[in-house]
UniProtKB/TrEMBL annotation:
Residues 1-21 are annotated as: Disordered. This is Sel1 repeat family protein. The chain crosses the membrane at residues 30-55. The keyword Cell division does not apply. It comes from Roseibium marinum. InterPro entries: ISR_Activator, Sel1-like, TPR-like_helical_dom_sf. Keywords: Membrane, Transmembrane, Transmembrane helix. The keyword Membrane applies. It comes from the Bacteria.
Length: 394
């Protein structure tokens, strides 16, 4: 189909029954014992209520009075809920900040507990003296509070200072945050060399996002010398940690490598991994590979499934591909209303297609109405429903 060829970014049963009967009989005996204990008043009233059948003595003749057959049945235990009837749990905010016992000293964990409950000022007050004494966890927490402006005015420069102190004590999370600040020039001057250094520190601790970002810097030759092989090695590490962005980038590196390191099979494999983890762009690209049979067996129906999955999450390229699927009847039964509907949404989002425009123009009014209904169903915030059939489509 035209357009798909281009590349885009032992015992027997009797024995078992017998054993089962023995177990049931044993349970009945226990219940009878419990009933007798209850009759003697040795169980706490209200926890177990039974109706035991007790033989009565005449006291004179020694003859037992015949028990009522109904009362001789096995006792039926009734469990009573003795817990509070009010099962409502307090929210972590309503529960208040963590309380210290007499003589107990606050730690960074206490500060984090307050932070997690939303008591940011309390967290700030608890963490500050600890951070000033060199507690790296408290320093990292102050970095978060200053960066996000929680309990204090936002100040990313101060956040960077606290992150730097914690990173100097090998706090990988702080190194990761500081690397992002240097990469974007937020709170500090942009410095991709420092960003790469901090990404590497976090990467050495097994941080998948740091591995991914460091790989991109090697790939771009910024902050690190250009090294496609090194970039791929880092992406491989991050991809093995199930980072979908790294899996997507690794797949692309195998498909679009500039130095003869192409491997369509590996490219399709990693794009498929990313697609299955919900990476929308990977779903589109993997759908194209499935349709073309590049690096993977061709399967137009599966390709259509991937396009639809990505399209329903708002990807306009996937919408365009799905429209072509319906228009040409490949991977889906031919459906011009569906083709036009998906095309209208994709076009609204900036993906044009002249061949699909011509199909829309050729549709009868009934089919076009169905197409508009589909478009409005999936893009209610992008195109308002119109009762005027003459109104130009978006």
């Amino acid at each position: 189909m035209h357009g798909f060829e281009q590349t885009f970014p032992g015992p027997s049963r009797e024995g078992e029954d017998h054993d089962g009967n023995k177990r049931r009989k044993g349970f009945s005996a226990l219940l009878n014992q419990a009933a007798l204990i209850l009759a003697a008043g040795l169980l706490v009233t209200g926890l177990l209520i039974t109706a035991p059948a007790l033989a009565q003595d005449s006291g004179e003749s020694g003859d037992a009075v015949e028990a009522d057959p109904a009362a001789s049945a096995e006792p039926r235990p009734v469990l009573i809920d003795v817990t509070t009837s009010d099962k409502t749990l307090l929210s972590i905010v309503d529960a208040g900040p963590p309380h210290l016992r007499e003589g107990e000293t606050a730690t960074s964990q206490t500060a984090y507990s307050a932070f997690q409950r939303g008591w940011f000022l309390t967290a700030l007050g608890l963490a500050t003296p600890l951070a000033e004494q060199g507690d790296k966890a408290a320093q990292a927490l102050l970095g978060v509070l200053h960066e996000a402006g929680l309990g204090i005015k936002q100040d990313k420069a101060k956040a960077a200072d606290w992150y730097a102190l914690a990173a100097a004590q090998d706090d990988a999370g702080s190194a990761m945050q500081l690397a992002q600040l240097y990469l974007l020039g937020t709170g500090v001057e942009t410095d991709k060399k420092k960003a790469a250094d901090y990404f590497e520190q976090a990467a050495n601790a097994g941080n998948a996002s740091a591995l991914y970002n460091l790989a991109l810097l090697y790939q771009e030759g910024e902050g690190r010398p250009f090294d496609e092989q090194k970039s791929r090695e880092l992406l491989e590490e991050a991809a093995q940690l199930n980072d979908p962005e790294a899996q997507y980038a690794l797949g692309l590196s195998y498909l679009e490598a500039q130095s003869g390191l192409n491997d369509p099979g590996q490219g399709a494999f990693w794009l498929g991994r990313a697609a299955r983890r919900g990476h929308t762009s990977a779903q589109v690209y993997y759908g194209i590979l499935r349709f073309q049979g590049k690096g993977v067996d061709p399967n137009e129906a599966e390709a259509a499934d991937w396009f639809e999955r990505a399209a329903t999450t708002g990807n306009p390229v996937a919408m365009n591909r799905l429209a072509r699927i319906y228009a040409n009847g490949r991977g889906r039964e031919q459906d011009f209303a569906a083709a036009a509907g998906w095309h209208l949404i994709a076009r609204t989002l900036g993906v044009s297609d002249l061949s699909l425009d011509r199909i829309v123009e050729s549709l009868d009014e009934e089919t076009l109405t169905d197409a508009r209904k589909l478009a409005e169903q999936y893009s209610a915030t992008l195109m308002a429903p119109s009762e005027d059939p003459a109104r130009e489509s978006p």
